[in-house]
Target: GntR family transcriptional regulator
Amino acid sequence: MIDRSNSVPLYLQVKQWMVEKMDSGEWQEGDMIQPERELAEDFGVNRLTVRQAISELAAEGRVVRTRGRGTFVSSPKIQQPLGQLTSFTEDMRRLGMVASSRVLKLEIREATAVERTMLALPPQGLVFELNRLRLADGIPMALENAVLCYELCEKLTEVSFVELQSLYVALKEKCGLELTRAHQTIETLVPPQHMAELLKSPEGAPVLKMTRKTFTRDGTPVEWVRSFYRGDRYRFESELLL
Model:
């Protein structure tokens, strides 16, 4: 399995062997990988070599380390393109997965100072807040906290978000609002315990926080949303042109 005459570093040869096991289907999602000590003995290398291979696979989301239990094969990451304004429901449908939601919070209230700034609201302006756990094929994928200008989307009160998954569809069909562009930022953070429990994310795994402000064609801000995606299940990608 290891070719010491090969110029490829030993840890990359170990990593490639493990990748082939996963890509061939011999190692399935949830399978536990042999301990580092056993793999090192099988390959005839030291444990640091195996550890480096596993660390790279963990960084790529191919495996998940669970303290006190071991290392397990994880699901392939969802490739989420940047540069297109789409809903979670559309994204999952494109990937052949069934989107669903659990509504955690739904209320109409007075906007905070930050929300008034983000949505260009007057003093005492109202917002419609929708906080949901988003799932794909029953697996928690993201937490979404969407705050919208209530004056523009009052008819959202007629929508059952348990049944209707896409907020953007509701905005178009019920409120006559078509969102055409957005400004967003993405950063990583270690989730607080309650968030990690809702997402069922591995211990210590980061989440990808996306903050987005969405506009209509005439530049009216409608939505300010903060989404927290499981870092072990998502990979954002974009195409850059020179």
Summary: The mean pLDDT is 86. The chain has two domains: 10-73, 78-237. The radius of gyration is 22 Å. Helices lie at 10-23, 36-43, 47-59, 88-94, 113-119, 167-175, 193-199.
